[in-house]
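User: Round two. Same drill as before: sequence, then structure, for each protein.

Assistant: Same drill it is. First protein:
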Amino acid sequence: MAQIKTNTPAFLGLLIIILGLGTFGQVNAQGVWKTDSSHIKFFSEAPLENIEAENVKARGAINTEKNMIAISVPITGFKFEKELMEEHFNENYLESEKFPKGTFQGTFNEKIDWKKDGTYPATAKGSLTIHGVKRETTLKGTVNIKNGKIYVNAEFTVRLEDHDIEIPQIVFQNIAEEILVTCYFSFKQ
């Protein structure tokens, strides 16, 4: 597993903000923006079947003073077209009772003028944790600042093997080895 160098105190502060769900709505730290809506979609294209699911329950925060972002996604928040797919996803593949959240914690590589409206191509380097396996990752996307809000879009692939997600041989042609993930978040202070 890749070693990740982080600014630990800043990460801890940001994570406390995100994971403190009970007080999430009361956070008003300077430079910290919290999600007010999110949409995550994944798509698996395989020879026998395409699978997609959507999740609107992710939470997150951006610390504009530290140029950092942290996202927490409840795995059971993914909704599928077919109920049986959702059941297999949670019980057999993601083991959502054992690993209830996926997370990303990272730092934007670019200097973004958080006080100025505009669209900025952006990358964030950090750790992506899925199925309890943390991997160093760089995510590419766009930051759009407009009318007092920050909008973040990203698209990336996740290799199931990288996160120890095993697919039984019998359904190998139903599930792709790489999953396309698209994300949208809006943040407000």
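Second protein:
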Amino acid sequence: MEINPILQNVLAPPVLFFLIGAISVLFKSDLEIPAPLPKLFSLYLLLAIGFKGGIEIQKSGFTDQVLPTLSAAILMSLVIPLIGFLILRFKFDVFNSAAIAAAYGSISAVTFISAESFLESQKIAFDGFMVGALALMESPAIIVGLLLVKFAAPKNRPKSRKMHLSAILHESLLNGSVYLLLSSLIVGFLTASSNPSGITKMEPFTGQLFYGAECFFLLDMGIVAAQRLPRLKSAGSFLIGFAIFMPLFNAFIGVFIARFLSLGPGNALLFVVLCASASYLAVPAAMRMTVPEAKSSYYISTTLGLTFPFNIVLGIPIYMSLVSTIIPLSPL
């Protein structure tokens, strides 16, 4: 693997701001970002990538490559939690295993955005329809996680904690981030179809401001990730190893699926990153509400304190190296 892409990734402004945020915690700086701002920037990033993704899907259309790719994305978000659950059951009970597995079956939009920035810095083309895969991969893992609890949990679970299918679907499909991402995708698609001038009017908001907003959001993420690091001690070595092994394992599966789908290097990296990332927002919110038996320190500390920074700093260039190694060899 070439060292240059890793250095270029580490020295990119979003990653540097992430590291600056983490260092501020380690050195006990009084740097603090008011609570509403990270939420605002998170919503902005989801709106912008959804809007731009809808435009690109309208431009590319539902081609022979788009539909299989979106189907494969959904399939991976269903399979990954099942694999993770089987591994985690060696060490944890049903509740913690299902919650952690669901987090690793879902995705991280910020990791996806960082991968897009990496591709742009490497001048590698990718298609906007991959945002559709991002939007579709967040909910299925939540559904699988909750169904695992429903069918594998001890029979004597209190009735007050029994889950109904309608509640599972509502939480999975209408949580804030999924709703905003899908809605923005539709708005972008409709704007590109019927009102192209709207794209120009939105460009300063969804285009020129995007990179700066990403840097600011990652600054806050660095702070939060570093604050989570001490809680990793309670997770134990098994879960810490899982937090690094699972992304690499999922990336390995993802790159062969990308090869089977004949995706180009840019789209392949985005698909692999979606498979390798883990949710630290939507899934924890759903699990905290519906599976209170699971320890949030497990699934939040590992995804946010370990897997997320690993993917942002080292994972993306490692996955790109994997893509570059395997996909050119494909005779398909």
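The radius of gyration is 19 Å.

User: Perfect.
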